[in-house]
Design brief:
The structure holds two protein chains of two kinds. Chain A has two domains: 226 residues, Rossmann fold, CATH 3.40.50.300; 117 residues, OB fold (Dihydrolipoamide Acetyltransferase, E2P), CATH 2.40.50.140. In chain A, the strands form four sheets. Chain A has a six-stranded mixed sheet, with helices on both faces. Chain A contains eight helices and 20 strands. In chain A, helix 5 links the parallel strand 7 and strand 8. By secondary structure, chain B is mostly helical. Chain B has one domain: MetI-like fold (Orthogonal Bundle). Chain B contains twelve helices and no strands. Classes of the chains: A alpha+beta, B mainly alpha. At the A-B interface, strand 6 and helix 2 of A face helix 8 and helix 9 of B.
């Protein structure tokens, strides 16, 4: 093995995809660049219509880019039809072949590749074991549950040992409990097989819990690529902060610039020290974001003041809604502890303490 | 369905039962009469003279009946197979594309035989084939086969298209993703899933061809009677229970085919 610790499995270079012509034309992807590393669990995250599924389909070969290159281990695969790409897909609807048994579904890819029969059989056994479906090998795919179909779809796509596995919202049809189980299962499968996973989802929680890195997409563009921590704690733009997790937005104007930060006067008159994202030169009106769990309530001495307008209990934590003096709402989240019920009442005047480095000035 | 007393119920409309009974009587009584008199011992198709299988025997020993039956089956088999292949290709071509301007027109074009009066087609074919007969000197079964194939296509097309439209296209995408070449996608995924529709189309085309009178009557050359045209010719001269016997056998075959058709389409859903 040559010493290339971070070889790219997939490299998308300047890819655009336009559907239709003239006035009906839709730009699904607009000059997208992204490099996905080998053995990585990479997630494309964004709302529906952001282009994430289009990008996946371009990598699989179901559609061809209008412009740009897609490299698989350095080789341009953009002109290849899907059956010539060492890439397999787990479909949102699973797309299991209804006329074939579980085992025959799994062996389909290997048979198409013309592998010898004993190799196919051994691999099918291995796959059935990997997804814990040995007993159901001769069942029809119509006779098994949604979660089991999901496992068969995974086994079928993994059986030919693709260079890259594409997963198109594969968990969206499962109920909450099963989804949680499959999230862990997918992480295990990725770890055990060492195959690069590219996972598409609109569920931010799914993205945060499973991925090594996430690309957040909106309107055909990638807005930010980074680890879950980076995406959550240091969103690059307002959309990312808004789409992932809950965020308080405070409107204000720059009072003073400092190295890596700024002093912002928000509309209520209060002044907050906020960090500024790299490469961003804010001026004039700006938005400051603060995560609800990065602030706490206090009797006095905080940067913001207001009146408690609502208390919402979530079991693991409680949300305190504060009506700010000077307008606007601010939510503070507190982890619930057994012996600490708090004494705050709706209508109480409160002060909000924003933790050091918690406030950030973001680009729109 | 909620079934409150206030709901509209067609069953409680005056005359509904009468109309229903009348319709069923008109549909089935003649057929029942026909079948009953197939077993008549006498020569009448109206006066019962006792039970006998003599007319079935007579039909079985009637060389012309057997000859016409064989011809009918020959034409229907070839026409149904060719029409089904053509209909399968037409159905694939009209469902495997994004909808475009003119697609509805194309459906209408394929289904032409369902809309143009059969007699018009029959006359048109008679004129054209007469010219070709003179020009080539060929007067075999080919003309009947071609004509039957043409009017069988829409009947074969409809169930195949219905099947294709309900098929999940992602399955074909999935097969291609799993290294199947376009031909393998067709033979390993599309065709097996389409099979019930194809069988249904084939049987429908077969029955339609077997049953045809108008076009056959116009297109056939001398000595090319099919079973229906032979029966028509006989009825013009002399009506005996032999016709009832032949019709009864014909009916049984149709029921058999429809039953098979029903089970195939039920199994596939």
């Amino acid at each position: 093995m040559p010493e290339t610790p971070e070889r790219n499995a997939i490299e998308v270079r300047g890819v655009s995809k336009v559907f239709g012509f003239g006035p009906d034309k839709v730009v699904a992807l607009d000059d997208v660049h992204v490099a996905i590393r080998e053995n990585e669990f990479f997630t494309l995250l964004g709302p529906s219509g952001c282009g994430k599924t289009t990008l996946l389909r371009l990598i699989a070969g179901f559609d061809f880019p209008t412009d740009g290159e897609i490299l698989l281990h350095g080789q341009d695969i953009a002109p290849l039809p899907p059956h010539k790409r060492p890439v397999n897909t787990v479909f949102q609807s699973y797309a299991l072949f209804p006329h074939l048994t579980v085992a025959k579904n799994i062996s389909f890819g290997l048979e198409m590749l013309g592998r010898p029969k004993d190799e196919v059989d051994a691999r099918v056994d291995e796959m059935l074991k990997l997804v814990r479906m040995e007993e159901l090998r001769n069942r029809s795919t119509a006779q098994i549950s949604g979660g089991q179909q999901q496992r068969v779809a995974l086994a079928r796509a993994l059986a030919p040992q693709p260079k890259v596995l594409l997963l198109d919202e594969p968990l969206s049809a499962l109920d909450y409990k099963l989804r949680k189980e499959m999230q862990i299962e997918l992480k295990r499968l990725q770890h055990e097989t060492g195959i690069t996973f590219i996972f598409v989802t609109h569920d931010q929680e799914e993205a945060l819990t499973m991925s090594a890195r996430i690309a957040v997409m909106s309107a055909g563009n990638i807005l930010q690529i980074g680890s879950p921590e980076a995406i959550y704690d240091r969103p690059a733009v307002r959309f990312v902060a808004d789409f992932i997790g809950e965020t308080n937005f405070l409107e204000g104007s720059i009072e003073e610039r400092a190295a890596g930060g700024a002093r912002v006067r928000i509309s209520s008159g209060a002044v907050i020290d906020a960090s500024v994202a790299e490469g961003f030169q804010p001026s004039g009106r700006v938005t400051v974001v603060v995560r609800p769990e990065h602030a706490r309530l206090s009797a006095e001495g905080g940067q913001l003041a207001g009146r408690l307008s609502n208390i919402v209990y979530f079991g693991t934590d409680t949300h305190f809604h504060v009506e700010l003096d000077g307008g606007g709402e601010f939510i503070v989240r507190r982890q619930n502890a057994r012996d600490d019920r708090g004494t705050a009442r709706i209508g109480d005047p409160v002060s909000i303490v924003i933790g050091a480095g918690a406030a950030q000035v973001l680009r729109d | 369905m909620a079934s409150g007393r206030s709901n509209f119920s067609i069953r409680h409309q005056p005359g509904f039962t009468t109309v229903a009974v009348l319709c069923f009587a008109l549909l089935y009584l003649p057929i029942v009469t026909l079948v009953v008199f197939a077993f008549n011992a006498g020569r009448s198709v109206a006066i019962w003279e006792g039970f006998s299988l003599r007319w079935f025997e007579a039909a079985w020993n009637n060389e012309r009946v057997i000859e016409a039956s064989i011809r009918s089956v020959q034409i229907a088999s070839v026409a149904a197979v060719v029409a089904t292949i053509a209909a399968t290709m037409a159905a694939l071509a009209t469902t495997r594309t994004r909808p475009y301007r003119g697609l509805t027109f194309k459906y209408a074009f394929i289904n032409q035989p369902l809309m143009i009066p059969e007699i018009v087609t029959a006359v048109a074919l008679l004129i054209v084939f007469a010219r070709i007969k003179v020009a080539t000197g060929y007067s075999g079964l080919g003309y009947l086969i071609v004509a039957h194939t043409a009017f069988c296509i829409p009947f074969a097309y409809l169930p195949i298209r219905a099947r294709l439209e309900s098929m999940d296209l992602t399955l074909e995408t999935a097969a291609a993703d799993l290294y199947a070449t376009p031909w393998k996608v067709f033979t390993r995924v599309t065709l097996p899933l389409l099979w019930p529709g194809i069988i249904a189309g084939l049987m429908l085309a077969f029955v339609i061809s077997l049953d045809d009178v108008v076009i056959t009557e116009f297109v056939k050359s001398g000595g090319q009677d099919t079973l229906p045209t032979y029966m028509l010719g006989q009825l013009r001269r002399l009506v005996t229970p032999e016709m009832n016997a032949i019709s009864t056998v014909f009916l049984l075959i149709s029921i058999l085919i429809v039953t098979v058709f029903f089970f195939i389409s039920r199994r596939s859903t």
